[in-house]
Amino acid sequence: MLPSGLRMRQRAEFTLAVRRGRRAGRPNIVTHLLRRDEIDAEPLAGFIVARTVGNAVVRNKVRRRLRHLVADRVARLPRGSLLVVRANPKAASAGHDDLAADLDSALDRLLRDQSPGRGGGVRTDKGRT
Questions:
Q1: Domain residue ranges in the chain
Q2: I want to staple 54 with a disulfide (CB 3.0 to 4.6 A). Which of 20, 92, 103, 124 is the partner?
Q3: If one looks up domain 4-111 in CATH, what number appears?
Q4: Which residue intervals make up region (Disordered) (predicted)?
Q5: For the whole model, what pTM was predicted?
């Protein structure tokens, strides 16, 4: 289980990660990762499981599965980063292996995109970075 100290709890952190972080969408989940190199702290992870996923029992089950999966992968995250995992409605019927594969794929993309030397610059009005 993901330790309590690594869970994102403040709305401002969720908003910051979703608005400014990099996004990777998969069939069962959408992940947002905001790398904050200037902050030397443990990475934080938050979860969004909306009513469209299912009733309260289903949502809590999906949230528990996602927390368990992220706990095994939190060491991969850069220090100070914020990770938000949003469950899509398909996550309710997805198996453990499907959720794990989607999470691994999304994290691989986000961590690759944010590695030193990659793009990530600010877009200009001409579409160039």
A1: 4-111
A2: 92
A3: 3.30.230.10
A4: 110-129
A5: 0.84
How confident is the prediction for the chain on average, in pLDDT? 88
How far is residue 125's CA from residue 118's CA, in Å, rounded to a whole number? 20
Please give the backbone phi and psi of residue 10, each rounded to the nearest 5 degrees, phi first. Answer: -95, 135
Q: What contacts 43, CB < 8 A, 6 or more positions away? A: 6, 74, 77, 78, 79, 80, 81, 82, 83
Cα atoms found within 13 Å of the Cα of residue 57, Cβ hemisphere only: 0
Distance CA 40, CA 49 (A): 28
| CB environment 69-88: b (16+ within 10 A), e (fewer) | bbeeebeebbebbbbbbbbb
Q: Per-residue pLDDT for 73 more than 70?
A: yes
pLDDT (mean) for 109-126: 56
As a whole number, mean pLDDT of residues 104-118 equals 77
